[in-house]
Amino acid sequence: MSEAVKHCRGCGRDVPLTGFARDCNRGDGLQPRCRECVAAYGAERYRIRQAAKGKAVRSLADVPVGHKLCRQCDQIKPHSEWHRNATASDGLATRCKACKKVQGRAGHLKRKYGITEAERDRMIAAQGGVCLVCREGPAEHVDHDHGTGKVRGVLCFSCNAALGQFKDRPDVIRRAAAYVEGNLWNPTLVAQGVCRRPS
């Protein structure tokens, strides 16, 4: 048994009934134009209204099936390059994964440190592109004072992690430096749990 169809007044095709939205004012309970025609008509009307307001109107892109246009980078990409979004009409996010990643990094810098990517890049350039602590590793991680939130510089991964392990305590860092230099006292074990300082 063939599926029931209806003739669309817009495109002139015979479209299955599921391709029409409901309209209780019609005899058959369906709109006279298929969903695709209604969407295209609505989009065109929207573009006309926006142009009348003097706003910039983007041209419609010819997007192949299984692809979507990213309005952020203006590139047509396959659906695999998009995150899912159940609330969107097409089930996909509004920006491609690459654009979302870039925007996520910029948003993270602004939220956590209160700086832009340009400000971070200027700091890295002022440091000569290297970590402020070891002066060898690449400056990649923004370092900040956990108490005040003030950004101190951009460090390499290892130095940033080390400061975190030392809990940003200068006294502990100084003792660690003295230990590495061999200047800390070495206790002598007299009995279990009992140490004696050297004289």
From TrEMBL:
Entry's Gene Ontology molecular function annotations: endonuclease activity
InterPro entries linked to this entry: Endonuclease_7, Endonuclease_7_sf, His-Me_finger_sf
The UniProt record lists the keyword Nuclease: yes
Cited Pfam families: Endonuclease_7
rRNA-binding in keyword set: no
Keywords: Endonuclease, Hydrolase, Nuclease
Protein name: Endonuclease VII domain-containing protein
Organism: Streptomyces litmocidini
